[in-house]
Amino acid sequence: MNAIVEDVSKCRKKVKVEIDQDFVKKKYKDICNSFQKHAQIPGFRAGKVPEALIKKRFSSAIKEELEKNIMQESVPEILKEKNIEAVYSPMVEEINMDIDKFSCDFSFVVDTRPEFDLKEYKNLKLEKTVYPVKEKQIKEALQNLREQFACFEPVEDRPVKKGDYCVVEFKITVDDKVVKESNAQWIIVDNGKDLYGKALELINMDKNAKKNIPIEFEGKQGFMDILLKDIKEKKLPDLDEEFVKDLGDYKDIDDVKDKIKEELEKNSNHKTNHQLEDAIVAKLLELNQFDVPETLVLSQLHHLLNEASHSLRRQGLSDEDIKKEQEHLKENLKTRASDLVRLEFILAGIIEKEEIKAEKEEVDKKLEEIAKIYKKNPADIRKDMIEKGSIANIYNKIKDDKVIDLIIKEADITEKIYKEIAE
């Protein structure tokens, strides 16, 4: 077997291969024997079909099996012999097979691990933004809680005013046909967006009053008939013992505020850390510029497009609209896909250099966290991930996190207070 390797790009090689005739002849003979052994042809007992008939009747299938067999055996051997580290399955470009002469030559391309000099990742100059929790945020969070526990009291002694909540029965007619209707629609009378932009028409209407108003519906002129069935006023609970009791296991309103502050600080720290990690990633990508395997980029791009499609589908977009959007997304996401692949090689380089490992206890802890989220047994989560081949993701995530922690520990970090909420 003779193989010639050519560099197509920094991360891709083309390999031209010529297979020995004796090897092809032997493989051909083995495959013919296998077909002869298992062939079911009327008039012949199993295993007794003449070889000439086998070769004639199954010529295409034999050739296909021979090509497949040669590929499966020779390609891994060539990669090992030529010391080529493939990062994706090799792709056969051309194959020429002449069974009469027992000759076979083919070529394939293979993407390889990029070679790059890992730039210094310690003592990076970074900026960390801190988001202090202010009294204003605590008050807003407390107000949101009051909104959640609000009640709606019926109004009997006055007409509708701005800020009320109304229950209406309505019917929209276009060209004498009813195109939309509801027997009990809740409407907020504030900015007029509800009720197809006609919510403010309810102002000064009394309970059980009716109204007919012109409306444009889907580009056509029509009319809306409204019956005001109920007027309700939103009442927020007082900040008293009863409200604290409704919230849960709290001592008093000050205890509620303390817990709110604690949660806000937790979210603030998460935001700070997340932005710092983003800054580290951006710095690593800026410092380490190199080409990456195209097959890995396309694979990552496919993954990102699938995620985007699922997100758009949850937003209510049709498959047709999603398909149109994908063409636009593809251009925007290709750079991100390339960056993610490059980042993977950068992190792997640091992991190798620092000899970072994921310990069993760390993996077990991560599995317990996942199990808690899905309310399953950690052993079942592990088994499921092993079966799906995704357990390696846990190990990789732990090692990647350790790289980030190492960089933060060794970095020169300047801390600043977020201006909008600074004292």
Structural class: alpha+beta
Largest sheet: 5 strands, antiparallel
Strand content: 15-25%
Order of helices and strands: EEHHHEEEHEEEHEEHHHHHHHE
Give Rg in angstroms: 35 Å
Quantity of strands, as a count = 11
Instruction: Label the overall shape.
Output: extended
What does this structure look like?
The strands form 3 sheets. Strands 6, 7, 8, 9 and 10 form a 5-stranded antiparallel sheet that branches. The chain has helices spanning 21-38, 51-57, 59-81, 135-148, 194-197, 241-247, 253-287, 294-314, 319-354, 360-374, 378-388, 391-410; strands at residues 2-9, 12-19, 91-98, 103-111, 125-130, 151-154, 165-174, 177-188, 210-217, 220-235, 412-417. It starts with a strand and ends in a 6-residue tail after the last strand. With 423 residues, the chain is of the alpha+beta class. A hairpin with a 2-residue loop joins strand 7 (165-174) and strand 8 (177-188). It is built from 12 helices and 11 strands.
